[in-house]
Amino acid sequence: MRSVRARAALGATVVVALAVVAAGLGVLLVLRANLTDQAGLQAEVAARETAGQLALDVPYGKLETGDGEDHPVQVTDEDGRVVAVSEDLEAISGTGTDRVTPQPSPAAPEKGDDDRDRDDDDGDDDAASADPGRGEVSTDEPRFGNGTATVDGDRAAYRFASVEATNSAGLTLTVHAGAPLAAEQRAVASVRGAMLAGLPVVLLVVAGVTWLVTRRALRPVEGIRREMAAITASEDLSRRVPEPASRDEIARLARTTNETLTALEASVDRQRRFVADASHELRSPIASLRTQLEVGAAHPELLDVAGAVADTVRLQVLAADLLLLARLDAGERPGNARLDLGALVREEVSQRIGDRIAVTVSVPEPGGLEVTGSRGQLVRVIGNLLDNAERHAESSVAVEVRAERGGVAVVVTDDGAGVPEAERERIFERFVRLDDARARDDGGAGLGLAIARDVAGRHGGRLTAAGAGERGARFELWLPGSR
């Protein structure tokens, strides 16, 4: 199922179906429990009425048990014998015994109306007025259970309550009285039928509403998709996807997509400029080298070997810079070696024996100047800063290394023309050379400072340019210290 709308509708329908089924089961269980409790209460009332008569020594044959179909009654003695049943009771289950034929208990004498009349006639007044004693009905919680009873040929389910009573002779009898569960069964069946009939309608409504709501919610996404497809087909990165007026996730997605397109457009523009600038920078030394070689081929005595070597070195340096920039743009991560930045500066300066101006080095005693990174890249940064200073200095170049704010700072100064304040950020862009003091002179391609700042940033540091007093330039490289 590839459609988000279909998956959302199906998911919502399944969740609602499960919720409705669970809620329906809960309602049915609660309804059944309540109706069963009501039936149990009716059964208890009927059982206690019969138990009250037994406590008053009403003979078994004269017990008033009401309608046997509504409240079937069974009375058993201590030995489990059935001593009385309600009228028309033909079968019973769920009361402990299924017998419905009374078996008079020998321990329970019955006294009829004729015997009472004879006693009244034969006995004296004191004997006639004597109280033979009264029994009692148990106040304990009755026992409940479900069963069936057949009354006058009709078999039905009942809720039975069992109550104990003791007559005046001390005989304990148990009254089992039932209340019909037909009403409970009909109510539960009606509710269950209504739920089953309404469930498909509810699910159809939920699925339809979810489909429509999801379709409306995803309409901006479809617009974004169409516009992205058009941008891909046309390769026009200046186009942007429509942004909904809402402030929801889709609006944020559209804004993020446009921000990504803006960054991608800028990246592509930089790449195009980079390729164009690189081609331009490579054209001059290649053309010069070709001219010298052609002249040398025709007139060997006119071959400028030194110039050809210089152009070759310039090409080599430019190719190395372009290769390093390509690796940096590809996301090459710096190393994690622990390096003494002061030692690196001393080593780099000691190897610059051909510089036209001697470099003054100020490095404190070893210790506290360690950084983490790539040795080759950091040496390249220091070399580029020194090259830049040598190219524009008039008489002095100085480099200082010191611990500063939890890191290490390398400061390179020269006494050249300096960098105008308005140009101090632009000089770090690729292939940028200023028109005056920092114009193209002896082969600079405008990549050294760009490479230096890029490497510094990838090492978690920074590279800034400033003035060096009244005259000259000051470049400060800061790198975080090793931990």
Task: Describe the structure in brief.
The protein has 9 helices and 14 strands.
Q: Whole-number average pLDDT?
A: 83
Structural class: alpha+beta
Q: If you compute it from the alpha carbons, what radius of gyration comes out, rounded to the nearest whole angstrom?
A: 53 Å
Total strand count, please?
A: 14
Write the H/E string, N to C. HEEEHHEEEEHHHEHEEHEEHEE
Largest sheet: 7 strands, antiparallel
Helix content range? 40-55%
Count helical runs. 9
**Coarse shape:** elongated
Overall tally of domains? 3
Describe this structure in words.
The chain is built from 9 helices and 14 strands. It is α+β, with helices and mostly antiparallel strands. It has 3 domains: 185 residues; 78 residues, Helix Hairpins (Orthogonal Bundle); 147 residues, 2-Layer Sandwich (Heat Shock Protein 90). The strands form 3 sheets. Strands 1, 2, 3, 4, 5, 6 and 7 form a 7-stranded antiparallel beta sheet that branches. The two termini are 53 Å apart.
